[in-house]
Amino acid sequence: MNNKLKITKVANSLAVTTAIIYLVCILAKWVAPGLTTTLGSYLFHGIDITNLVVARSFSYSLVSLITGAIISWLIGALFAMVYNKVR
Question: Number of C-alpha atoms within 13 angstroms, CB side, residue 87?
Answer without folding.
Answer: 12
